[in-house]
Amino acid sequence: MHNTKLLSDAVEVWWSSEVDPGKLKWFEGPRDIPYRLSRQPDIALTVPQETETTRITITPSHAGQQILGMGTSMEDTTISNLARMSPARREEVLRLLVDEESGIGLNLIRITLGTSDFTGQAFYTYNDMPEGVTDFEQRYFSIKKDVELGIVETVQQLTALAPQVRIFASSWSPPAWMKTSGSLKRGSLKEGPEYTAALAKYYRLAIQAYQEHGIPIYAMTLQNEPLFETDYPSCYMPPERQRELAVALRQELDQHGLETKIWIFDHNFSDAWAYVTPILNDAAGCGAVDGIALHDYEGSPEVMSEIHAAYPDKPIYLTERSLWGTAGADRMAQYFRNYACSYNAWVTMLDSNISPHQWLGTPGPTMMIQDAADADNYWIIPEYYLLGQYTRFVKPGAYRVASDYGSKETVTNVVFRNPGGELVAVMINQSDAEQEFCVLCEGRQWLAKLPAKTVGTYRWRAGAGTVTG
Fold it and tell me: What range(s) does the Glycosyl hydrolase family 30 beta sandwich domain occupy (predicted)?
C-alpha cells in the first residue's frame, strides 16, 4: 500500500474493484482482484470549462454532520478465529484492520457484552445464575469468560496498535434471570423498576470491568435489535422500557464518574420513527440519550435525514450492516448523505467452513476469510479494499459536505472535508462500463475516468492549488 499523506496540490487517486460481491465462492479460496486500493496517476486541477461528461458539483462551505469513525466488529466469531493463529499472524491481521498506513485505518470497533449469535461458544452473559436464582446485588457478576476466550486480550492488542480506535458495545440479551423467558433466547426484561435498575447496574459493571482492563467503552447501545425475538440471544424491549433503562443507566454512569455515551434503538430504518419518538419526546429520556443507533436490514436511509431534522442534537450512527461490491459502497455513501456519523460492518473474519456462528441463516463472506485447515492462512476479499476507500482517507472529525449525488448509471458519490482541510470524494461506478466525469469545486475543475464496477477515492487540498488552463 502507498503512503496516504497529501503530497501535492493535484488530485490524488486510488481505486478498488468488486469481484463476485457477496458470493459464497469466496469461502473456497483467494482470487485475483484487479484494483486493491491501487494508487493511480494524479489528476490536474484546471480552470472550469464546458464539457459533455457527467458533472458533479461540490460545495465545501455547505457542511453536514461530523464523522465519528468507521469500522467493523470484534465479536467472538472473529476473535476465536484470530485465537487459532500464531501471535505474529494475528498481529498482522489486526494491523491490516487498524493501521493508518499499512492497513485501512479502521477506528470504530463494536464489541458484544456477552455472546451474540456470531460465536462458537455456549451462549453466556456476565451474570448467569441457576434457574430460579436471582442476583440483584450482582455479587456474581464477572467478565471472566471474556478474559478466558481472549476477547479482552484481543481488544487490548488492537487498541495498543491503534490508540485512535474507539470501542462501543452492544448487548444481545440481559442475564436469563432478568427475563420473562428465563433464557437468553427470546423473552423481554421482566416488569418492575427493580429489573430496570438491575440491568442498568449490570451495564455499568460491564463498562467498569472493561475500563479496569484498559479498554474505555466510548458508547453502548442498550439492546441489539430490541424489536426482534429469536432462538439466539435476543430480548424484546419496547421504547417505553428502553427510555426507563436509559434514564437508569445515565444515573449509574453519572454516579460512578463514567463518560460512556448512551445510544438508543440499534435496529432497522423501518421502525426508527415509532421507536425514538417516545424516548426523545420525553424530557428525562432525551436528557439521558447521546445518540441514535440504526441497522440497515429493512427500510430506507432517508429516514435518517428526517430524524436528524427532528432531533438535530442527537447524532445518528449506522452500527450494523455488512455490504458487498460497488452497490454496497453506494449504500454506504447514502448513509453518510443522510446524516450517519459512523458506519460499522458486522463480523470481520469467518473461516472457509463459514464458521463459527449460530446465526439462523448462511452468512455472506467477511472481509477476511481464514483457511479452516491452516489457521495461519487467510485471504482478503474485495470488501476489505472497498471499505478502505473510505476508512483510509476520511478521518474522525471530518465533515460531510454538499455534492450532487450523480446517478447509478454514471457515478454516485459522497464528499468529506477532513480536519486537516483536504477534501475526500468517494466516487462509485456501479455500471458495466467505464465512466467519465467532471468535478467542479471552488472555482476549479478536474476530469476523471473510473473503470466499471470500481470505487475511486480522490483527495485534494480545499481552496488551494495551482490551476492550469
Answer: 397-458
* Cα–Cα distance for residue pair 235/175, rounded to 1 Å: 10
Residue 225, number of CB atoms within 10 A of its CB: 22
Q: Which of 171, 172, 174 is nearest to 194 (CA)?
A: 174
Q: List, for the chain, all residue ranges whose pLDDT scores fall below the cut of 50.
A: 2-7, 464-469
Give the three cell numbers for residue 331: 449504500
Burial 42-75 (b: 16+ CB within 10 A, else e): bbbbeeeeeeeebbbebebeeebbebbbbbbbbb
β-bridge partners, 343? 70, 318
Which residue in the block uniquely carries the three cell numbers 471474556? 146
Q: Domain 11-65+399-461 - what CATH class? A: mainly beta
**Domain residue ranges of the chain, discontinuous segments joined by +:** 11-65+399-461, 69-391
Q: pLDDT tens-digit profile of 256-313?
A: 999 999 999 999 999 999 999 999 999 999 999 999 999 999 999 999 999 999 999 9
The three grid cell numbers given for residue 350, joined into one nine-digit string: 469467518
> What pLDDT digit, counting tens, does each position of 180-203 carry?
999 999 999 999 999 999 999 999
> Distance between CA 336 and CA 209 in Å, rounded?
33
What is the CATH architecture assignment of 69-391? Alpha-Beta Barrel (3.20)
Q: Which is nearest to 188 in space by CA: 199, 330, 404?
A: 199
Query: Would you give the end-to-end CA distance of the chain in angstroms?
Result: 33
* Cα 350 to Cα 34, 115, 344, distances in angstroms: 23, 16, 17
By three-state DSSP, how is residue 5 classified?
Answer: coil
